[in-house]
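User: I want to check something. If I give you two sequences, will you return the structure for each one separately, not as a complex?

Assistant: Yes, each is folded on its own. Here is the first sequence with its structure:
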Amino acid sequence: MPRTVFFLNGPNANLYGLDKSGTYGSESFASIEARCQRHASELGLQLEFRQSNHEGVLVDWIQEARLNADAVIINAAGLTYSSVPILDALLAFDGPIIEAHMSNIWKRESFRHHSYVSKAATGVIAGLGALGYRLALTAVAELLEHKA
């Protein structure tokens, strides 16, 4: 049976690709999702790829993952730097958690240098754009294989 991964994206991730010269590159969110779905399938993973602009929805999905997912990949976006509720929900999840960011958060504004998500994360991938999403899926597949 394939392992299920919840890939959760926070506020404004749905806007990826709309600013071609911006921080997050030119690839649209829909295109990134399609590539992630293909890669997950190649890895034998079932992928739930979701995005919300609302903190409580992300918390609900993390809690849902406790029953329905083997791993979580999360780009909490702006909530990375402020959300204790997301941290608390992630701490209650018993499986690999990869924190993923399109940009290198440590090269940006100083308020982005502290991540609440990192306290719960197994690992962090940042600064590699959409490639980081692919690497996060590969990392989760490897972690789940070694856990089995």
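And separately, the second sequence with its own structure:
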Amino acid sequence: MTELSPYDEAALLAQARSSSATEREQAFNALFTATRRDVYALCLHLCGNRSDAEDAVQECFVGVHQALPRFRGESRLSTWVYRIALRSAWQVRARHPRGREDLEQGLGKPSDAPAPDDVASARQQTRQIHAAMQKLSEEHRTVLSLFAIDGLGHKQVADVLGIAEGTVWSRLHSARKRLAAELLQAPAVAC
């Protein structure tokens, strides 16, 4: 997750609470620029396809734009944005259950051209992991996405989800076990 320094967050909040519409818009644009890639990645992993992820990102930032001037500062600004992103992704996912395109379609293509066999193998692994992740509970998928994919620490995950750090440890342990079990049971996916 892109971290804004406490100074940057304080400056953004001061701008967001300004009486000037221009300054409020600048604060939102700076926050959007700093967090959009991470928010998209999170939404993509939770929603499972680009279209739903894009919808969730849009809903997230509409919510951020509307609520930013009223943000109380009880948590980090980036943590607050992540919470809104989680809710948006969950809502979009609830509206569009299953029948998803491959997760790999939402990820960038590498610049070096790997061997075709390596590409086929990586795609197969991606499909298997994606299919196994989709079988996890929302709780397990979320904690794995925040920790393993988005690179948040246990404390940050706890802050984003509003749960105790020990609960994060427990959910991660359970999620990893469940994911491993799903991967062991998964039939080979054709390339």
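Because they were folded independently, the notes below concern the second chain alone. The two ends are 32 Å apart (CA to CA). Confidence is low (pLDDT under 50) at residues 99-111.
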